[in-house]
From TrEMBL:
The protein's name in its UniProt record: Dihydroflavonol-4-reductase
MF-aspect GO terms: dihydroflavanol 4-reductase activity
Keyword Cell wall biogenesis/degradation carried by entry: no
Top-level taxon in the UniProt lineage: Bacteria
Enzyme Commission number: 1.1.1.219
Length: 332
């Protein structure tokens, strides 16, 4: 069994990864930024032999010590805001610098196996602007494209920096996992911005649904891919888009309104001109406006073939998220 350092261990995806690792018998070092985030993980795994370390993507302190005794680096930590920042560098700097800081500390400590959490957002807006086609793991998002969000640029640049690093250090054995929009059940109420789209739909915050689609994957499948990748030699040097099938926002709204007819979920579709107008004063609509006219679907078939599993259907992942959010709604 391996000892795995999981960065950003209090994150939505990372908590599922920690659970998967523990269930498979691995030892876990959980890197968190603060005491409250540590408490979240401890509450979920009160009896688990987890070693905690405090790390920050923007600071050097603690990284070398954190790598002691580690076999695998599982780097999930990256800023993921609900609203786009005023300055894209507020996302780009910590994403890129944090990735290089983690890889540098791993390489210095002789930790050569790394699994990095990227995103389909680093894939589906390529420079060729062929917006209608399904993208593949060979594609890269144009980081300075007119429709590229700060988050998509940050994740693309961070992943590209990681591949350059391992190119300069051939002993490093990197796999990246590129999830689409990650739905499914959270493990606690601290799911951050990961389920923001579902939350906005089921609470009626979207008066109209923009005509945009997105790749969707269940968080449990994302965790499974990470853990299986770390011990699969065939995964070294590969990117694995994780996508069970794209859904449009109107499709999501229609499905949720059928399941929860009394929730007041709007099924109205927003015309593109209205989304662009609303984007001037609604941060969520600004992100939507940058996705208009894009087929964000990405071929996710490589991961099931490599790791031997079937995706949880996108619709089931969406409903699992909605069920969780509605269960916590009275306490909100």
């Amino acid at each position: 069994m391996s000892t795995v350092l999981v960065t950003g261990a209090s994150g939505f995806i990372a908590k599922h990864i920690v659970r998967e690792l523990l269930e498979q018998g691995h030892a876990v070092k959980a890197a968190v930024r603060s005491g409250p985030r540590r408490a979240q993980v401890e509450a979920l795994f009160p009896d688990a032999p987890i070693e905690f370390v405090s790390l920050d993507l923007t600071a050097d302190e603690g990284w070398d010590a954190a790598m002691a005794g580690v076999d695998v680096l599982m780097h999930t930590a990256s800023p993921f805001p609900v609203a786009p920042p005023r300055d894209p560098q507020d996302l780009i700097r910590p994403a890129v610098d944090g990735t290089l800081r983690a890889l540098g500390a791993a390489q210095a400590a002789g930790v050569t196996r790394v699994v990095l959490t990227s995103t389909c957002g680093a894939i589906y807006k390529p420079a060729d602007r062929e917006w209608s086609r399904v993208k593949t793991r060979e594609d890269w998002t144009e980081t300075e494209g007119p429709k590229t969000t700060a988050y998509e640029a940050s994740k693309t640049l961070a992943e590209q920096a990681a591949w350059r690093f391992v190119g300069e250090h051939p002993e490093m054995r990197l796999t990246t996992v590129n999830p689409g929009m990650v739905f499914g059940p959270a493990m606690d109420e601290h799911y951050g911005s990961s389920l923001a789209t579902v939350e906005q739909l089921v609470t009626g915050s979207f008066p109209m649904a923009p005509k945009m689609n997105m790749p969707v994957v269940d968080v449990r499948d994302v965790a499974r891919i990470h853990v299986r990748a770390m011990s699969d030699d065939g995964a070294v040097g590969q990117r694995f888009p994780a996508n069970a099938g794209a859904l449009s926002v109107p499709e999501m709204a229609a499905l949720l309104s059928e399941v929860y007819p009394d929730a007041g979920i709007s099924r109205r579709v927003a015309p593109d001109w209205l989304v662009r107008t609303m984007s001037a004063f609604m941060p969520a609509m600004k992100t939507a406006a940058q996705g208009l006219g894009l087929n964000a679907d990405v071929d996710g078939s490589d991961a099931p073939r490599q790791f031997g599993f079937d995706y949880i259907p996108s619709r089931d992942a969406l409903l699992a998220s909605a069920e969780f959010i509605r269960a916590y709604e009275p306490a909100a």
